[in-house]
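ok here's ABC transporter permease, seq below lol
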Amino acid sequence: MPRARRIEGREAPMADTTFHRALDSDLFWSFRKSWTARVSSLVLLVLFGAAIFAPWLATQNPYDISQLFLLDSELPPMWIDGGDPRYILGTDQQARDLYSAILYGLRLSLVVGFASVALAAALGITLGLLGGFLGGIVDAAIMRVADILLSFPAILVALLVNGIARGVLPPDQHADAAIWVLILAIGLTNWVQYARTVRGSTMVERQKEYVQAARINGVSGSGIMIQHILPNVLGPVLVIATINLGMAVLTEATLSFLGVGMPATQPSLGTLIRIGNEYLFSGIWWVVIFPSVVLVVLVLAVNLLGDWLRDALNPKLR
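and the structure came out like this:
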């Protein structure tokens, strides 16, 4: 029941706050009823917190050469004979504490994932709105570019963009620009899904009465797209962005595993897996196993949360 407040000696209902409306929403009710969504959110919260607070949770800075001691290289996890209590998950061949390297690598992977999703969403939403609202040659040109990109595997397009960027940049700047090149490569690969979804929704929304009323009132085309149509097409975009976060992290890991991602001096999860894979058959299994487990858990949690969000926002399933 809404709370009441006194106005001139009378009790009047007090409007619910945004927080209370959110708690009473169908989305939050679905979240409480879904154990998959709750567990996935908890796992993601732990992983995001570990990435954000990596400098405080890590026992060493794996990027600082002065903190590395080569005599401590290739130590197993601390619960195995020969392990050192200072290194919970052991060390790699460069004497980096694997626990600390995973925390910093997780941070890099998430930064690349979120930034590339933001770039893809911004580009796709903009092009989708323009194509769906304007139609004609603008829509045809955008959709033909999208069709061309869809005819190639996403990883191949990312490799192409990555190769072009590395060819343009001087060799001594490759390491410093690696994260920006990855974000650009992955972002330019994934914008098509947003554009096609937003275009379809925009073509439906532009025929509705509220858009016609806005035109009669003299609202400009850009004003109609931003103020009226955009808020009504963001639901599917949110679902795509959630699922694409896992795909972006996987793409970054794949590129890093192939040696065209983050350098070995600034390892992401994919770089750690590539380095560990080179020493897997020599018995140093922990360097590849633990980063792989973290990557699998992260992507699985994101995908499960995205699946729940897709079902929760689908009115046919309510």
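fwiw DSSP finds 13 helices and two strands in the chain. kinda neat tbh
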